[in-house]
Amino acid sequence: xxxxxxxxxxxxxxxxxxxxxxxxxxxxxxxxxxxxxxxxxxxxxxxxxxxxxxxxxxxxxxxxxxxxxxxxxxxxxxxxxxxxxxxxxxxxxxxxxxxxxxxxxxxxxxxxxxxxxxxxxxxxxxxxxxxxxxxxxxxxxxxxxxxxxxxxxxxxxxxxxxxxxxxxxxxxxxxxxxxxxxxxxxxxxxxxxxxxxxxxxxxxxxxxxxxxxxxxxxxxxxxxxxxxxxxxxxxxxxxxxxxxxxxxxxxxxxxxxxxxxxxxxxxxxxxxxxxxxxxxx
Length: 281
Fold this sequence. Notes:
- The chain has an eight-stranded mixed beta sheet, with helices on both faces. It has a two-stranded antiparallel ribbon with strand order 5-8. Strands 6-7 form a two-stranded antiparallel ribbon.
- A hairpin with a 2-residue loop joins strand 10 (218-228) and strand 11 (231-241).
- Helices cover 34% and strands 25% of the residues.
- It is built from ten helices and twelve strands.
């Protein structure tokens, strides 16, 4: 398999999520109405600062019932979900039967697209990993406003504004929004079979979301990038699992004035993986 995270070493991959950094401090939050600790991590802020971005790295450790972040206020803010919504859009496409499985073919209509890699027939798996916006816009239109809102309400997914005008763009433009905490709660429900979806859909989605895996670990997730009023905002959400634990993550960042935007496509993952490395020291 193509390796996209070369700097994640074996020590990181086999960790049991025994945390945490000595300088972190605790307060409380809730997951499913259960009190859990919030652990403030200055080391994460150093990673954010060194990358010339603003934002928050948020982890939730299932074994310790603790959240870890550099900025919990930021983690409570809501932003456009951007392409992280492809997770939810994919689930709804599978549940409604529009997509049979991750090998379903999505045909290119021959129209010019923003990225050359999108200008071809794509199986569903590749459309997800290539983040093919036109593919998912077509899927959203076929789902339709009524069914989209029905599923979003059942999933309790953020605050999406879906109508006839926004059905194929609401996750990229407008006032739809979701927080890092809400992203993690949605992923936690998916991972723990708590979403009202079929076992087949869940199985396909968990396979679809895999970014990298070996005998020691699996990393699953999705990036996202939106621009609202000229302001860039980036996501990386997902979960990291070993045989003994799962750790959910939601990173949300915006570039500083000095940031080199050529690096924005990779910086979301980079800072998240550096935070993983930090918590295993």
